[in-house]
């Protein structure tokens, strides 16, 4: 299974660089080869319990697929912005690619360093890949960009040491690279933009995303340290939790956002949300869907309490939420992508805050949330945090957040790139859902080395093709320009990756589909 997963990732790397071949292509290929060898060292460390931190079990390290996401994303972003003539974001794409390569290289060096005896051949490969990457960065980045990349690496190192210690068994090494690398990059961007504020420069919704993500992470770190010294389950601690959340929100996060957008954040948000009648209709519709999702949770828990034996939600039951998320995102993508962008940021902040309430058992809802959500746990929720619903939201939202709007004439990219914002809907909302439902109910032929079925994968590919056809009918901004073969290849490769990967597919699949469509 690991070999097939690696082969699929190599295929996507080569396909992307067949379209976008430049000096970073050699770096990406070298990084992929050394990550392929190093991930076996990580797997061995995980099996022997010598990986320093406690990582999620029942999965391989996932180093290769995770290592290639940021570099490939940066390369295709650079190419799109170069074609559009937007130099600032072309340089930004180069910084993203360089940062991703350096973070992946750091994780590889760490694995090689703690492996005993020292693997000589892997050390040589890592050294060659590192030399190629550093040489290319030396001739591609300015001094300020090199400093920016090193800042992200420094933040990543400290953030990894803190969060991997506090949250054992929540991540594999590859998932830690993706999640903590992304958070480190966002934090560095927020610091950089806060120190160089120019009035009128930058989109307020981008600043809103940066401040919201960093704000909820800092909030969690603050309360984690605080509740080391006091019991979080008492009413006094709960009152203190809610009071300090309000103080940090109104006293730190709001002024920080005000400095960036130069207007009252609450007034700006209310004006933005209710700016048009279409937005009002969408908000009412989304409220109804949110209530439906809550209804599913309460109904399934009532069903559990009425049964004598231990009841756990089935795969098909968990996929109800995928259908609800698709019904949420598709109208937003068609009618108002900026509103969807902001609503997804708000939803992410609420999800993470509710997870804090559940994790710390904050009264009055902490214990209730623990009871309600325990029904929907699967083998990937082996740590103290429940992250699968947050990963689902991220998988649907990242293609919307990472879409290079400044480099897209008339708000859309040409050819297959027009489907980039739909990557989460196609890969997770349609593909993963259909594969799970059909695979678990009708599947008989299993892919070698996995529990996934041939029937599930084929129906997933077919369903995504139908979804693309429906998008063409209902979204007039999408014009594929006869790039159907590339779309079919992209959807097929990502669906096969879903069958073979043991990483969090809600997070990994949309990013790879976005990379392929942007290329």
UniProtKB/TrEMBL annotation:
This is dolichol kinase. GO terms for molecular function: dolichol kinase activity. The chain crosses the membrane at residues 7-37, 57-76, 88-112, 118-137, 149-167, 207-228, 240-258, 278-299, 320-335, 341-361, 382-402, 422-442, 454-474. Keywords: Endoplasmic reticulum, Kinase, Membrane, Transferase, Transmembrane, Transmembrane helix. One of its GO terms (cellular component) is endoplasmic reticulum membrane. Its main location: endoplasmic reticulum. It is an enzyme of class 2 (transferase). It comes from the Eukaryota. It is found in: Endoplasmic reticulum membrane. It is a multi-pass membrane protein. The gene is Dolk. Its EC number is 2.7.1.108. GO terms for biological process: dolichyl monophosphate biosynthetic process. Belongs to the polyprenol kinase family. PANTHER family: DOLICHOL KINASE, TRANSMEMBRANE PROTEIN 15-RELATED.
